Sequence to fold (300 residues):
Amino acid sequence: MEPTKQSVPREAIDAYNLFIHGNIDRRAFLDRVKKVAVSSAAAAAIVDQLMPNYAAAQQVSPTDPRIKTERATVPSPNGNGKISGLLVRPAAAGTNRMPAILVVHENRGLNPHIEDIARRLALENFMTFAPDTLTSLGGYPGDDVKGGELFGKVDRAKMGEDLYAAAVWLKNRPDSNGRLGATGFCFGGGIANTLAVRMGADIHAIAPYYGGAPPTADVPKIKAAVLVHHGGEDARLVAAWPEYDKAMTAAGIIHEGHIYPGAVHGFNNDATPERYNKAAADQAWKSTIAWFNKYVRATT
Fold:
């Protein structure tokens, strides 16, 4: 008989989010879980349920015959020298030039969930590249906790240059048609916003998930169509959204913002089922694909 699944209190989910964002250490995370659990065994069960399960969440196999994947390395002379990642194309595309989407991970490196997102987007007939900002330290270590620790050791300015180099490389590949979009999650969502500021008309659309907005003074530099996703329970980012919305409206930027009631930070990540909100994730994914089809795939 399988053990009964332990109910996960909201306080434990909040503690997990603080932990993975580096706001508290592992000991503090465990202490907070213990305070809301009925026993040590229950606390251990809660921690286990909060940890990602990438195998269970995988939607598109790396060997799916509908896609072609390869590891690619991009020169980054202004960053850490190079950045590697997963490049995915629809198998049916052949030699046709395609619109491209950069997929930027959270603050733990290129883990299996983000690779799966890249494959999912390829099934929507986009070429995708998911770079790994931990390349200079050997790449994602196979564990999110260790990945988070490594992430904090990479120079943030150089990391930004690496991601910019990846975006430019993807846009200018010979099998790209020159139309570029970007999506990202948490840290990656903030990067999508940053790239929109930096690249201007060279990027056509972005879809940041629970990412930090750019400085208000920089918003008029954006020429991309912007689709923002936030969980309704993600208080800090929800509170910051109206200012970003107002600045984009004033600048005449095509944009939409969606706040999903009851959803927490990380609601799209089906590898962390206690944060995952299927209704919100499905709705956000549907609108993201429609957004990219309209503003990245379109040529008029």
